[in-house]
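Supplementary notes (optional reading)

For those who missed the lab, this is the record we used. Protein: ferric-chelate reductase (NADPH). Length: 687 residues.
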Amino acid sequence: MSSITSRHSHDAMGGMMTMAAGVPGLFYMQQIFWAFVGTAIAVATIANVINRILYHQRITSSKSVANAAKPKSFFFQAHATTSAIIREFSYYSKPLSFRNKHLYLPPMGPVIMMVGYIVLIVVCVFYRLNPKDLLQWEDIGYRAGFIAVCQMPLIVLLAGKRNIIGLLTGVGYERLNWLHRWTARALLFTVFIHMGYWFTEWAKFDYIGVKVKTDALTQKGIAAGSILLWLVLSSVAPIRGLSYEFFVVQHVISWLGFFAALYLHIPDENKIWIWLPLAFWAFDRLLRAGYLVYANLSVLHKNNSGVLACKATFEPLDESHTCITIANPPVTWKAGQHIFLACHPLAPLSSHPFTIASLPEDGKLEFVVRAKKGATKKFFKYAEKTYPNLPSSTGKQNVGRSVLIDGPYAAIRPLRQFDSLVFVAGSTGATFTVPLMRDIVQNWMGTKATSSRLSALSPPAGAVTRHIRFVWVVKRKSAIGWFASQLDQAVRDIEALRNEGHDITLSISIYLTCDDTLTSGQSSFIEGKTPPSQVAVNSRDSFADEKKAATEDVEEVSLSRVSSSSIKDCCCTRVVTDEDAITSPCNCASTTRRQQRASGSTTASYEKPSRIVDAKIHLLAGRPHVQNIIRKTAELALGEMAVVVCGPPGLVQCTRNAVVKVSDERAVHKGTGAQGIYVHAEAFGYA
């Protein structure tokens, strides 16, 4: 008994330096942990470097080779085969059905990554220790504590907007943030092991109450563990989504409290794992502050007056969306990026990420923000009061409000290196895909600004891409007006290029699911089969969507399976498998009118004079069969193609699964000659 009770001191050093013979020391196991983490980061860095070399090679050779996106050397053929195998299991997500509701498990790639991380933690904690041996429980408790604290730098690095891991791997912070949340959950798991073995041993001698009441080190450890538990629970999406502004403030405060309690709990030899993440956090904040000052002080930019460089106008588009426009922005960006925007007079102490739908060549930043609650709702109310052309307007001229911007952020592989592109967007997801499509068209036209080239090492102008397939699913045709002029211009540009002999194609299809005027009274519109005068949409310039918009009620249906819960009041649930056939109309009008009469609701109209969308743009009633679309594009691709999807989680994962099935059926890069398919996915909200 004395040999056991003598170890109950649990002081700063305890018995941690008296491991049994042959058992690795605590600091050594921390080094092993970081050896594996560092190797994983190195592998991701090498993959990023290879992708950049491949990008440069394809663009450089596109002038002389028709199929520049097809691998030719043995190395790149092996790389393509390896990539195809990894993609086929990493993109896939198992669909689940419960009471006519369909949902998806997380994709296999992230799941395998996190399972591997948990396995690494378990191995580091229990290596050469016997969890059944009471005399080794304290050693396991110490080991778990040491492995827990050495995870802190990784968690903080993954949380930074501008961090080393993102720079090395080419992955945007918004994707690393998913890993940040899950590594924090893994940290909590490690802390449970650390606390569990100590409490289990104390419980055998009825010692828990004594330790909690009298031992300051135990009290500080319980405080740190409790704050960590709160940090993890409050970061779960349903709770986080209750109030984003409150979440951000309390998360930072709780994090600082956790670090303070942890600093008091751990021994001095381990405090390097506190100072390192604090240094990384301070570096990220200082770097962001520098960018913030540069982007927002007018004295640092020409043609700007006042203190702040950015003034935004707010315009209501319909009953739930606001267009925010910043003319002559002081920053440049790339298609697919987003910016944090804050307007403190309207929404104090809040900053939200919004996707940029315009291109730098447009000379303006534009966003479309869906009014939900908090800041986004305040933006919409302000726009209703100030915009001069509305019936409810007070007549006050909207000259713009001063705003702060932070960014741009996000990274996507350059799409002009792929032979064919498929864009799939659900509702406001088009604000992500339209600029990317326009960027390729501008490369085709030769109008892409050369100032976007960062260095002499960047590939020359031009694009490998030969074919673009653009698919957009919306509820009502009024939404098409957000991008009508951009889509029309793209069609005209491609037609002009084809007349000059360029072998390029652009095919645009818009699917409507809940619009009475199309789905009820008319059949699907196909070029050459319906007079253009019947395809009227509202005209306006491009806008962007709110990065954290909630999921819209539009979801791609895979293999003719329809979830009634996902479509709610939208009755046009059929999947259009053949766009070249005229299908019978959906009868949605009577249903919608009954619902409006029952609710007594009326919808305010903000529509502008309508005009004709280009007849070459297909309008169809129903939902797309994404797998057929991807398969048809893949059959014509001469090299690697890319699929870009943005929308509700259901649509995103259905698209991923469709790519997996097409890739598997065609035996991509397995001797059949079929070319690879890369997927970039943007889902509404966060996991």
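If you only remember one thing from this example: The CA atoms of residues 256 and 598 lie 51 Å apart.
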